[in-house]
């Protein structure tokens, strides 16, 4: 791929990075996907490059001439405080040095607990370690934007729903429902919460990149609202599985699992989001970017098809 003409750079090839790269490529746009091991989707318009994205000089070289830099990277959940700062700094540096439009994939952690719907104009008020990491990333990017050093925007998702996403629903609920065995989660099982379908996350990222109104502000991913119990019951029906049995895991049980698995140990500080405190308002995204939430049944049907193959 020549760097002399416009194209897009996507850092990260997880479910969202892959979906974003494919959306761009399928619309006829050229994409360079940068990951540590050179992974990414197979497509004639997608170039896969192995590089360390914390190397600002190398990332700048790979980004030069691009139209947009998408930050879809995701360090291990238990290593955010150590791994995110150098990675975020390198991405922002590359954006500043090249003048590329910088689109960050974020989440709602930076708001902290919110009484009522979350809107994009809420201040950063994190109460958790991971929330402070995300808030610091946005604060630094926004400062660069306001100083005229970069054009930045952030797309914020809630709890993910979809094929291949890293979520407790996929890790715990799906296999137990299919096996006909009880599933235990630390969530409030009946509290409505927002779910961001992975395809909608990618569509919002691409729409934000293409909008002249994006820069210097954040966007929420249009998301559906349902309780874990409602989603689980519907998933069981779609897979012809027995009626599901859900129980609420105690904090003590969660901590015991966390001592065996450091990633699971990170869930406790974010549990406030599963107790009815993740109502994401994406009215502005739907109005200005023309992205709306995919019906929950569509996401669950795709998930059911993926696990029944």
From TrEMBL:
The keyword NADP applies. Residues 10-213 form the NAD-dependent epimerase/dehydratase domain. It holds the Pfam family Epimerase. Keywords: NADP, Oxidoreductase. SUPFAM superfamilies: NAD(P)-binding Rossmann-fold domains. GO terms for molecular function: oxidoreductase activity. InterPro entries: Epimerase_deHydtase (IPR001509), NAD(P)-bd_dom_sf (IPR036291), NmrA/Isoflavone_reductase-like (IPR051609). Gene3D superfamilies: NAD(P)-binding Rossmann-like Domain. It comes from the Bacteria. This is NAD-dependent epimerase. The lineage of its organism: Bacteria, Bacillati, Actinomycetota, Actinomycetes, Kitasatosporales.
